[in-house]
Amino acid sequence: MIDYKIIGKRIKKARLEAGLTQSVLAEMLEISDNYLSQVENGREHPNLEMLSKISIHTNVTLPYLLADTVFESNEYLNKEFAEVLSLCSPKMKRLIYDIACRIAQEGD
Q1: For residues 72 and 70, what is the distance between their CA atoms, to the nearest angstrom?
Q2: Is the terminal CB of the chain with fewer CB neighbours within 10 Å at N or C?
Q3: What pLDDT does residue 108 have?
Q4: How confident is the model at residue 77 (pLDDT cuts 50, 70, 90)?
Q5: Tell me, what's the pLDDT at 52?
Q6: 70 - beta bridge partners?
Q7: What is the pLDDT of residue 63?
Q8: In this structure, what are the phi and psi dihedrals at residue 59, rounded to the nearest 5 degrees?
Q9: Is a pLDDT exceeding 60 seen at residue 75?
Q10: What are phi and psi of 2, to 5 degrees?
Q11: DSSP 54-94
Q12: What sign does the CA torsion over 79, 57, 16, 7 have?
């Protein structure tokens, strides 16, 4: 199963880094602003052709948008988790680590 929320976050990040508004990118893609918003929020699932167009207009690679977005992947969420952790204080990181360890032990 594919995690479209991650794909959507990556699209939004790429759009912002490219200096594009949702309206401008939507116009470039010939889609509605609302549809693009839904894609960025993970509620719509764009096809490969649309993802390819998005990658071209935001100057990112298609693998960047799709990499490690499958639930069964060993690398699933690693980059996103690392980004979240980089925003946390050492004390908060320790708390998150302790919680993750407890959850992992419960899963065994």
Answers
A1: 5
A2: C
A3: 57
A4: confident
A5: 97
A6: 2
A7: 93
A8: 60, 40
A9: yes
A10: -95, 140
A11: HHHHHT--HHHHHTT-BTT-TTTTHHHHHHHHHTS-HHHHH
A12: negative
Q: Is the pLDDT of residue 8 over 90?
A: yes
Q: Which pTM does this prediction carry?
A: 0.75
Provide the greatest CA pair distance for the chain.
Answer: 49
Distance CA 71, CA 88 (A): 25
> Within 13 Å, how many C-alpha atoms sit on residue 67's CB side?
11
What residues contact 62, with CB distance under 8 A and at least 6 apart? 51, 52, 55
Report the amino acid identity of residue 43. R
The counts of H helices and E strands in the chain are: 7, 0
Copy the structure tokens of residue 80: 């996103």
